[in-house]
Specification:
alpha/beta; Rossmann fold; 2 domains; six-stranded mixed beta sheet; 13 helices; 19% strand; globular
Length: 393
């Protein structure tokens, strides 16, 4: 029978991994991710999870071990944060290039220096060109659900790409919320055994990662791009299946909140979307027609879904919790480029970079920023295209 218990975001991920039953887990401790693999090691030690827990000397080795196990046919999992994710970066590209199904949790923490343990999205978004499917949770229940769904998506024959699931460190990672855990037998029936694109088992010659001609490498890269496009339908299908079986469906690649009659759209990703939705409720009470389009999957980028939401908007406000230095927020850049595929007459699109390095942005802060922008649009003033808002108490 399903049960509901209070879990931190880190433990929610661990409980989901336990239900997915990976054969191999490899990880190196790093704040604020460590409790994920600590809890998994408890499950392994107690016999609740029959998996090989590999203790390694670095994050680079952790992902390398997972890659080798995945190529040998195992279902694998790892988790990391911030500098650890950057240390993995070489193997992150290897995993996608050889189309190895695997799941990794990224418990976001600001990239150093200076030393900082508070969360923004900089570590997660730094991986955007690596060929991984990238999902980001808003709360602990979704962190649990996304982790389970990630195994299904990664092992889909139309996809066969690694998947990373993001959640903010401490904000979700160390905060307890009610999480419903489905029955193990129901998950087993839905997820099943790992599907194998190929297995390096010695039964026949196979080369992995050898030297190729440029044309062959280009074919491999093109295959990743095609798989990303196919992943869009796989993500929606898995979300719908999961909703039917377990009662929670989030809308696929994006979640819309009060968008049906909205004339203004705020775009966000991650836990602070909850505060943003709260600010939208406050603004709605005052008659401002605003809705939220929350990005659940950053790769593949959901430009078609966002276009359907934004096409009739008077203005779009993008809230980025990271920045590509010398450019703009990553979500803003992708959104504008994606919308231009559908029309050359965009509504005003404003990028608001804020919450950097873990600076707290409250519902009241969102309320003040959005109200000011809407009033500018309504009065005929130009809202510009970019602003870095530094919230100070």
């Amino acid at each position: 029978m399903p049960m509901k218990i209070a879990l931190t975001g880190n433990y929610a991920v661990a409980y989901a991994v336990k239900l997915a039953k990976p054969q191999v887990i490899a990880a190196y401790p790093i704040t604020p991710q460590t409790p994920v693999v600590e809890k998994l090691s408890e499950f392994v030690e107690s016999g609740e999870l029959k998996a090989q827990m590999i203790r390694v000397e670095s994050e680079h080795s952790a992902l390398a071990a997972c890659l080798g196990a995945a190529l040998a046919g195992a279902r694998v999992f790892t988790a990391t944060s911030s500098q650890g994710l950057l240390y993995m970066h070489e193997i992150i590209h290897w995993a996608s290039r050889v189309r190895a199904p695997m799941v990794m949790a990224v418990v976001s923490r600001t990239i150093n220096a200076p030393w900082n343990i508070w969360p923004d999205h900089s570590d997660f978004l730094d991986q955007r060109d690596a060929g991984w499917v990238m999902a980001y949770a808003m709360d602990n229940q979704e962190a649990f659900d996304l982790t389970l769904q990630a195994f299904k998506i990664s092992e889909d024959p139309e996809v066969y790409l690694p998947v990373m699931v993001g959640l903010e460190g401490f904000v979700l990672g160390h905060t307890a919320m009610p999480v419903e855990i489905p029955d193990e037998k129901d998950v087993d029936a839905w997820l099943g055994e790992r599907r194998q694109p190929y297995v390096v088992d010695g039964s026949e010659p196979i080369g992995v990662g050898g030297l190729t001609w440029p044309e062959d490498t280009e074919d491999m890269f093109y295959g990743i791009q095609q798989a990303m496009e196919r992943a869009k339908s796989a993500i929606k299908r898995v979300d719908a299946e999961y909703g039917k079986l377990f009662g929670r469906s989030y809308g696929g690649l994006i979640q819309c909140y009060r968008c049906e009659d909205a004339k203004y759209i705020a775009v966000s990703m991650g836990a602070w979307s909850g505060e943003l939705m709260e600010s939208v409720n406050m603004l709605r009470d005052e008659g401002y027609p605003i809705g939220v389009a929350r990005i659940r999957f950053y790769r593949p980028f959901p430009h078609e879904d966002l276009w359907e939401v934004a096409r009739s908007a008077r203005a779009v406000f993008v809230f980025d919790r990271a920045i590509s230095f010398g450019s703009w927020g990553q979500i803003y850049a992708d959104l504008v480029a994606g919308l231009l595929l559908h029309t050359n007459k965009l509504p005003p699109v404003m990028d608001i970079v804020t919450g950097i390095a873990g600076v707290h942005v409250s519902a009241e802060d969102f309320y003040a920023m959005i109200k000011k922008l809407i009033e500018k649009v309504e009065s005929g003033h130009n809202i510009g295209y970019f602003e870095w808002v530094r919230v100070r108490r």
